[in-house]
Every structure is written in structure tokens, then in C-alpha cells.
């Protein structure tokens, strides 16, 4: 089968762990040149080194560290991608944080940090990517990694679920704003996926079994489960898909009753 993203240039934020990493690796396998963003700390640097080792030796991969919640990080990220590869075709807003907390004792710092990273960062980076794509005049695909949490509540996620609803809404509004530039904007809504964000929660055997019992496919997801849908939304197979939301949850949402 021919590669689906040959000649394309993609940026994936938060891409040295979890879902972002899986998407970046699949984009490389599908022929894209990929720029990954990651937080500037030693653990993330190790993650990027590991990503380089896992990627093919001839992979066109560039790492750019930076805090995505800072406006300048987004503009620098897009500039580095365009300088290195000459253009930008695909942008995946994936970077996010999720720390469970009780609503009544939720600290302001945690709320502000979550909103800055998940929503402000998504807005800044999406805007920077869209500006580059519009300037090129050849369209593009923007994918926001939202969550099933955009559609349902979570008692320990009162600071998190609004940000994921915001990412979904951002993609819907950007689909309207950017359609005239042939820039498509869509959202992926993962269900329960085994990543570093929820590994502690899923370590509870009783809770894990309960969660899996609610999922019609009988298992929690893995990051690679998002890679195929992310390729679909990035490539020409979805050239008339715009403003859509695609649940990748094993059927959990339709079984929440």
C-alpha cells in the first residue's frame, strides 16, 4: 500500500509520549516529515531521544522544545518547521495535561495551569499553524485532540473537561473561519487510553475492570489506536471532512447509560 502522507509536512505538539508520539511515528511511516514539540525538561528530552531511536534512520524528524502555553512557543515552532521543510501541511494540537482533583479543594494554580496548557496552548498553536497554511495558499489539515470528556462530565475533572470541550469548539469554529483557505479542522475524541496521564488511575485493578466492562470492545485503548484516525484526517481520504468530531473510544460513549 502506498504511503498516505508522502511529501507532507506535519507538526505534532506534545509528541514524545502517549498519543502524540504514536501519531508522530505513524506520520513518519506514512511518508511525512514531522516536527515534534515537547516540554523543555530533562524527561522530555529523554523522550525525544527515544523517539529518534524508534523512528527510521532516514526519517525526516525535527524536535523543537518549548512550553506550548506560551504564545511565542507556537510562532517559533511553526517558523522552525517552515524553515526546515519549506511548508506546513498538517498540524496536530495534542499537548495536554490532566491531573485529577476534587472540585471543592481544587487549587487555582492547577486550574490555571490546565487551562493555559490545554486551551490557550491549543489556540496559540492552531492560530500560528493556520497563518502559515493560509499564507502558503494550498490548504491544509488541522486536528485537535479533544476527548470523550468534552461530551461527558467527570467529578475529578472539573478543571479538565471544559478545556477539552473548548478544543472541540475551537476546531468547529476554525472549520468555519478557515474553510475559505481550504484548511480543514477536525477533532479526535479519545476515550480511555493508556497513557502517562492516567496510568496511576488505571493501576487500580477494580477501576480498570469496571472501565473495561463499560467498553463494548472490552479493552481500554492504547495510543496507537489514535494513529490511524489521525492519518485519515490528515490525508486526502478525508478531503471533504471539516468541522467533524471523531470518537475513538471502543464504543464507550454509546454505552454510557
Keyphrases for this structure?
seven-stranded parallel β-sheet, alpha/beta, 257 residues, globular, NAD(P)-binding protein, Rossmann fold, 8 helices
Describe the structure in your own words.
The protein is globular. The chain contains eight helices and seven strands. With 257 residues, it is an alpha/beta fold. The chain has a single domain (9-195, 223-248), classed as Rossmann fold (3-Layer(aba) Sandwich), CATH 3.40.50.720. The longest helix has 29 residues, at 108-136. It has a seven-stranded parallel β-sheet with strand order 3-2-1-4-5-6-7, with helices on both faces.
Write the layout of secondary structure elements.
Layout: E1 9-12, H1 18-29, E2 33-38, H2 42-54, E3 61-65, H3 71-85, E4 90-93, H4 108-136, E5 140-145, H5 161-178, E6 183-190, H6 199-202, H7 205-214, H8 224-234, E7 245-248
Parallel strand pairs: 1-2, 1-4, 2-3, 4-5, 5-6, 6-7
Helix content range of the residues, please? Answer: 40-55%
| Spatial separation of the terminal alpha carbons | 40 Å
Low-confidence stretches: none
CATH class call: Alpha Beta
What would the average pLDDT be, to the nearest integer? 95
- Order the strands across the largest sheet as they lie in space: 3-2-1-4-5-6-7
CATH architecture: 3-Layer(aba) Sandwich
Sheet of most strands: 7 strands, parallel
Number of domains: 1
CATH topology: Rossmann fold
Structural class: alpha/beta
Number of strand elements: 7
Q: Which band does the percent of strand residues land in? A: 5-15%
Question: CATH homologous superfamily name?
Answer: NAD(P)-binding Rossmann-like Domain
Shape: globular
Radius of gyration: 17 Å
Number of helices: 8
**H/E topology pattern:** EHEHEHEHEHEHHHE
GO molecular function, one term: oxidoreductase activity, acting on the CH-OH group of donors, NAD or NADP as acceptor
Pfam families: adh_short_C2
Keywords: NADP, Oxidoreductase, Rhamnose metabolism
InterPro entries: NAD(P)-bd_dom_sf (IPR036291), SDR_fam (IPR002347)
Amino acid at each position: 500500500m502506498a504511503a498516505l502522507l508522502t511529501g507532507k509536512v506535519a507538526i505534532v505538539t506534545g509528541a514524545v509520549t502517549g498519543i502524540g508520539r504514536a501519531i508522530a511515528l505513524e506520520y513518519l511511516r506514512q511518508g511525512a516529515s514531522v516536527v515534534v514539540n515537547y516540554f523543555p525538561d530533562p524527561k522530555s528530552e529523554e523522550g525525544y531521544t527515544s523517539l529518534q531511536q524508534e523512528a527510521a534512520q532516514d526519517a525526516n524528524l525535527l524536535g523543537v522544545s518549548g512550553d506550548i502555553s506560551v504564545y511565542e512557543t507556537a510562532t517559533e515552532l511553526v517558523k522552525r518547521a517552515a524553515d526546515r521543510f519549506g511548508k506546513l501541511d498538517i498540524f496536530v494540537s495534542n499537548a495536554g495535561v490532566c491531573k485529577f482533583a476534587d472540585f471543592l479543594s481544587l487549587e487555582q494554580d492547577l486550574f490555571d495551569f490546565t487551562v493555559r496548557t490545554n486551551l490557550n496552548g491549543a489556540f496559540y498553536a492552531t492560530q500560528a499553524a493556520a497563518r502559515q497554511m493560509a499564507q502558503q495558499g494550498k490548504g491544509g489539515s488541522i486536528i485537535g485532540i479533544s476527548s470523550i470528556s468534552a461530551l461527558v462530565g467527570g467529578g475529578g475533572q472539573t478543571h479538565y473537561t471544559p478545556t477539552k470541550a473548548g478544543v472541540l469548539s475551537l476546531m468547529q469554529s476554525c472549520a468555519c473561519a478557515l474553510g475559505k483557505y481550504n484548511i480543514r479542522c477536525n477533532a479526535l475524541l479519545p476515550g480511555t487510553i493508556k497513557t502517562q496521564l492516567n496510568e496511576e488511575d488505571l493501576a487500580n485493578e477494580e477501576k480498570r475492570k469496571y472501565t473495561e466492562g463499560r467498553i463494548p470492545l472490552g479493552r481500554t485503548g492504547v495510543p496507537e489506536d489514535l494513529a490511524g484516525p489521525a492519518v485519515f484526517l490528515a490525508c486526502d481520504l478525508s478531503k471533504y471532512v471539516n468541522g467533524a468530531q471523531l470518537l475513538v473510544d471502543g464504543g464507550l460513549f454509546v454505552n454510557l447509560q
